Amino acid sequence: INMSLGTPPVNGICNEYGAYERTFRELRALGVLSIAAAGNDNASNMGAPACISHVLSVGATNTGSTSPAGFTNSNQYTDVFAPGTNIRAAIPGGGFASYSGTSMASPVVAGC
Questions:
Q1: Angle ∠(62,11,5) on CA atoms, nearest 5
Q2: How many Cβ atoms sit within 10 Å of the Cβ of residue 88?
Q3: CA 95: distance to chain centroid?
Q4: Which helix (H) or strand (E) holds 102?
Q5: What is the gyration radius of the CA atoms in the chain, in angstroms?
Q6: Does the predicted TM-score (pTM) go above 0.85?
Q7: Are 2 and 35 in contact, with CB atoms under 8 Å apart?
Q8: What's the rounded Cα separation, in Å, for the pair 96 and 110?
Q9: Which end of the chain is less enclosed by CB atoms within 10 A, N or C?
Q10: Distance CA 25, CA 14 (A)
Q11: Beta strands 2-3 and 35-37: pairing type?
């Protein structure tokens, strides 16, 4: 499951999101990996659901580099980083455009 949900950054692990935490814990027990974009606030905390301990959180790097992108949210709980700047993506109506953000990095990890 790949998710990109725009929630404000939360301090640390946010397992207090009861029903969500329980759902992601149950999915992990079934062998389903939940992956979420960390957020683009240049904050030292991640948004939900990336901050939930049973979710693999993804921060963005500058494409072609291992350096975190200037916009990425991250902290000691960020699980992985993936390219997230100037990612070419299909757009509605046909064609392609380049976008940047952790929403572009998480599909790289998910294999989308």
A1: 55
A2: 9
A3: 25
A4: helix 102-110
A5: 14
A6: yes
A7: yes
A8: 20
A9: C
A10: 13
A11: parallel
